[in-house]
Specification:
Blueprint: E1 3-9, E2 12-18, H1 24-32, E3 50-53, E4 56-59, E5 72-74, H2 87-94, H3 104-117, H4 123-129, H5 141-152
Parallel strand pairs: 1-5
Antiparallel strand pairs: 1-2, 3-4, 3-5
């Protein structure tokens, strides 16, 4: 039995019909067609599926889509301004924070949430904020440098 819902994703409202058990990640990827967020573990361990829900980061693989009905969802696609990368996205590229790219959407979402709540984080603050996001390629140093650089440039503004 499918249930009607309204998902507000990246500022656009979508009327969808969802199975009650479908998670937010699958709803956004399959029903809406935004595939930036990734499924890595399906168990809230890796952070690749991270999205902002009303401005707070959530593991969308473990969050029921119907719980997001009428709320504001931001995916990695919603961070850029059209074709213009967000300052944090540019910083990740400039500081070697991207290799395979699988973890990048979740890292960007977690870092965005951090910078919005703490525009001047310490290195420890960044590492703690990103601790729910696993990366097997970069060693995290480039990612941390990128977040600190974006913060210094006022990326949270």
């Amino acid at each position: 039995m499918r249930v009607p819902a309204r998902l507000n994703v990246n500022g656009t409202p979508y009327s969808v019909e969802l199975d009650p058990h479908v998670n937010l990640l699958d709803a956004v990827r399959d029903a809406i067609g935004l595939t930036g967020s990734k499924e890595g573990c399906d168990d809230s361990e890796c952070g690749a599926c991270m999205m902002l829900l009303d401005g707070k980061p959530v593991n969308s693989c473990s969050y029921l889509a119907l719980q997001a009905d009428g709320r504001d969802v931001t995916t990695v696609e919603g961070l850029a301004e059209g074709d213009e990368l967000a300052p944090l996205q540019r910083a990740l590229l400039e500081h070697g924070g991207v290799q395979c790219g699988f973890c990048t959407p979740g890292m960007l979402i977690s870092a965005t949430a951090l910078l919005r709540s703490n525009p001047n984080p310490s290195e420890e603050d960044v590492r703690i904020a990103l601790s729910g996001n696993l990366c097997r390629c970069t060693g995290y140093d480039g990612i941390v440098r990128a977040v600190l650089s974006a913060a210094a440039a006022g990326a949270a503004d």
